[in-house]
Amino acid sequence: MHDEPTAAVLPEEASPAQGPTRRNFLALSAATAGALATGSFASAQQSAKCIDIPERPTAKRPDPQPNPRVFSDKETLLAFRNHGHFAEFLDQPVTPLGMHYLLVHFDVPNLSANGYEIAIGGRVRNPRRVSLSDIKARPQVTEPVIMECAGTGRSTFQPRGIYVPWFKEAIGNYEWTGTPLRSLLEESGLLDDAVEVLFTGWDTGVDLGVEHAFERSLPIKEALRDGVMLAWAQNGQSLLPQHGFPLRLIVPTWYGMTSVKWLRAITVLNQPFKGIEQAKVYRYQKSATDPGVPVTVKRVHSVMKPPGLADAISRYRFAAPGRHVLQGKAWSGTGAIRRVEVSTDGGRTWRDAQLGQPGGPYSWTPWRTEWQVSKPGEYVLSSRATDTAGNIQPLSSAAIWNRQGMGGNVIERIHVIVQAGVGQSGEQVPSRPRQAVAGAEVPSPSNVDNQMK
Question: What is the residue range of 277's domain?
Answer without folding.
Answer: 54-292
